[in-house]
Write a structure and sequence with these properties.
Blueprint (H helix, E strand, L loop, with lengths): L4 E5 L5 E5 L3 E5 L10 E3 L10 E6 L2 E6 L6 E2 L2 E2 L5 E4 L4 E4 L2 E6 L7 H4 L7 E12 L2 H7 L2 H21 L3 E6 L2 E9 L4 H25 L7 E14 L7 E4 L1 H12 L8 E3 L1 H7 L5 E8 L6 E7 L2
Parallel strand pairs: 3-4, 15-17
Antiparallel strand pairs: 1-2, 1-11, 3-5, 5-6, 6-9, 7-8, 7-10, 10-11, 12-14, 12-15, 13-14, 15-16, 17-19, 18-19
Helix pairs in contact: 3-4
């Protein structure tokens, strides 16, 4: 097979292949598309027409057309945008994993950095998990032990975010930043998933402490916010996805206050609380001034 092709395992456990000639459509139905040009994924999270994989002058690219997202190598493609593909890339669509094979295409790194995402304004729930006392830990522990501990925490938290259908955006120093996009209207489901992911992370951290923590321990704080952000790329690299907005900044601020200035280890903004208050038991923490922000924020906690 000289042309690029896609390989995946179907619901019967059989390995399937389809050659990419111009375009391949991926979705739950792909109505009107002939069988040789479509990949059907029977998953309720997959849109009827979820994504298109097409050939370009530089190779393959994937275009997201879905509500619940497309992942390439565990990194979410910016909604509505296109991203270049290379040999060996793994595309995540619902529960399906599609492997990209490009035996006759050899692209250099500069070619693969060609993808851009135009600015897209959308509603996002942001979750920031901040390790408290990291400097003191680094001072009293061997660097290899600190690395092993943080690697365990980041790995565990990443798995939990994935389990709750979120996207890891960054590992920022001693913090993990993830998000759940709502599209253009606030959705209870997305905010609820973020809150439950934080609760699961808190529970998992408590289970780690007896065997992995020494000295004064390693407390953490979680900040969860919901609001409008602009999703785009600052540079030419597809990996440099940016989520710019007040809600993003507030999530980082709240993670630094939680379990410290606030009595709850998980701090929610009022917008997030409005979306989940009928399902999760919340604690009204009151109004607080947040560093770097005018006025006060009405904050809430989540009961474990």
């Amino acid at each position: 097979m000289l042309n690029s092709y896609l390989e995946w395992t179907d619901e019967k456990g059989q390995i399937r292949r389809v050659e990419v000639v111009e375009k391949i459509f991926v979705g739950r139905t792909c109505r009107g598309i002939e069988e040789s040009k479509r990949i059907i994924v029977e998953d309720p999270r997959v849109s009827r027409d979820h994504a298109i994989i097409s050939t370009t002058g530089l190779g393959l690219q994937i275009t997201d057309m879905s509500k619940n997202g497309v992942w390439v190598n565990d990194v979410r493609v910016a909604p509505g945008s296109s991203q270049g593909l290379k040999d060996g890339d793994l595309i995540g669509v619902g529960d399906a994993v599609i492997c990209v094979r490009c035996p006759s295409v050899a692209l250099d790194d500069e070619d693969m950095e060609r993808t851009r995402s135009g600015p897209i304004e959308m509603i996002v729930t942001s979750l920031v998990a901040d390790v408290r006392g990291f400097s003191a830990l680094s001072q009293r522990e061997n660097s290899s032990q600190v690395y092993a501990l943080m690697n365990d925490i980041f790995g565990m938290f990443t798995t939990i975010v994935s389990d709750f259908k979120g996207t890891i955006k960054d590992y920022v120093g001693d913090a993990v930043y993830a998000f759940w996009d709502h599209g253009f209207e606030p959705r209870e489901e997305q905010a609820l998933l973020a809150c439950r992911a934080a609760l699961k992370q808190l529970q998992a951290l408590d289970q780690m402490r007896p065997s992995r923590f020494s000295g004064e321990g390693l407390p953490m704080g979680w900040g969860i916010t919901t609001g409008k952000v602009t999703m785009a790329h600052y540079s030419a690299r597809a990996a440099d996805l940016a989520l710019v907005g007040d809600a993003t900044n507030l999530a980082f601020r709240l993670s630094g206050m939680a379990n410290k200035d606030l009595s709850s280890p998980i701090a929610l903004c009022s917008q997030t609380a409005d979306l989940v208050q009928d399902i999760l038991p919340l604690v009204d923490l009151g109004f607080f001034a947040v560093r770097g922000r005018a006025g006060q924020e009405h904050l809430y906690g989540v009961r474990s």
